[in-house]
């Protein structure tokens, strides 16, 4: 199908997909169509329609598909039958050439049709969630560039989807990111705090990291921004510690960042002296098995490296190495080990 699209064009592929000779992807109004008639599995449906969308706009194949195709030929002597998922970065696309109204509507109709299809699938099969989230992410990134939505309309749509279980926890992260982009960081933080109680502890660590990471911190960032990031990462620690009565001195600047870092050190078993009262019942095993609990600790260690005296630099580098080694022993899956190793390597490389 991919080779057919490349050599024979879009019209013939759309005919093979639907057996319809007339143009059924509307470009003058919002009008969804069914994907149920395709004789493809869901992964292939995702890749084919995302590729069709890309080709519709750019009249060429996505680079990721072409690279994967030729890499598999060079490595194995034959093309791979597995095609990688991908999303479209609309910020780059719109910067190069703003989408016309007809292009906006055609793109929306494809993505809304995909969203409807994969929403139904994800309700009964959790393994379909990555496909749903790929479509959802691509759609939400497109909407701010559409005349009828912009950022405010996209945020309204997001808030209407906050209670859809199949979209959690990623949808909370997307909403908070968009609210922050619109200048309401305080509101975004407060709403994130309310969302975390709906999630499993492992998802709380993931959401905390993603929310803090979206702030785009660097060594040049203000101490206030670094403290705000630490506050976001601290939210899951309420499961292990009583944080209702923190001394005022511990809530300011670099002292607060160090306080949150020590919370993680204690919860992950790397420091026997907790900086706050430990709750009588909490699942320490769940925390130690969470890849993003360890990643949050490395994130906090890197921030501490930025705000503290240069003479402590070697100490924090050593702690990053120790955290990586402890984490590799604690987590179980190979994917989690690889994620931790890559993140630790990036932190050490930038230190």
Short description:
With 351 residues, this protein is an all-alpha fold.
Work out the number of β strands: 0
Strand content range = under 5%
Major sheet characteristics: none
Which percent bin holds the helix content?
A: 55-70%
Helix-strand topology string: HHHHHHHHHHHHHHHHH
Q: What oligomeric arrangement do these chains adopt?
A: single chain
Would you tell me the overall average pLDDT? 80
- Based on secondary structure, the structural category is mainly alpha
Give the N-to-C terminal Cα separation.
46 Å
Please give the count of helices. Answer: 17
Overall morphology = elongated
Poorly predicted runs are none
Gyration radius, rounded: 23 Å
């Amino acid at each position: 199908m991919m080779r057919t699209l490349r050599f024979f064009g879009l019209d013939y592929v759309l005919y093979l997909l639907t057996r319809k000779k007339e143009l059924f992807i509307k470009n003058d109004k919002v009008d969804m169509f069914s994907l149920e008639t395709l004789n493809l599995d869901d992964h292939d449906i995702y890749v084919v329609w995302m590729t069709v969308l890309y080709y519709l706009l750019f009249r060429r194949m996505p680079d990721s598909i072409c690279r994967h195709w030729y890499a598999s030929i060079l490595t194995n002597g034959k093309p791979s039958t597995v095609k990688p998922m991908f999303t479209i970065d609309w910020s780059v696309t719109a910067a190069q050439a703003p989408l016309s109204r007809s292009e906006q509507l055609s793109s929306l109709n494809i993505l809304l049709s995909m969203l409807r299809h994969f929403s139904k699938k994800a309700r009964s099969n959790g393994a379909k969630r990555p496909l749903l989230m790929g479509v959802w992410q691509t759609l939400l990134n497109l909407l701010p560039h559409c005349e009828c939505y912009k950022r405010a309309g996209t945020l309204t749509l997001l808030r209407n989807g906050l209670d859809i279980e199949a979209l959690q926890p990623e949808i909370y992260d997307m909403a908070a990111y968009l609210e922050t982009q619109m200048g309401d960081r305080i509101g975004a933080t407060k709403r994130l705090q309310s969302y975390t109680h709906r999630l499993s502890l492992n998802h709380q660590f993931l959401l905390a990291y993603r929310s803090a990471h979206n702030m785009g911190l660097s060594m040049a960032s203000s101490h206030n921004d670094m403290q705000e990031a630490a506050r976001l990462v601290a939210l899951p620690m309420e499961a292990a510690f009583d944080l209702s009565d923190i001394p005022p001195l511990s809530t300011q600047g670099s002292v607060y960042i160090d306080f949150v870092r020590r919370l993680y050190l204690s919860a992950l078993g790397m420091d026997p002296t907790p900086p706050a009262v430990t709750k009588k019942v909490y699942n320490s095993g769940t925390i130690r098995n969470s890849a993003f609990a360890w990643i949050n600790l490395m994130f906090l260690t890197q921030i501490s490296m930025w705000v503290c005296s240069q003479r402590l630099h070697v100490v924090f580098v050593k702690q990053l190495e120790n955290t990586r080694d402890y984490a590799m022993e604690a987590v179980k899956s190979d994917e989690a080990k690889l994620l931790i190793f890559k993140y630790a390597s990036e932190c050490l490389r930038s230190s």
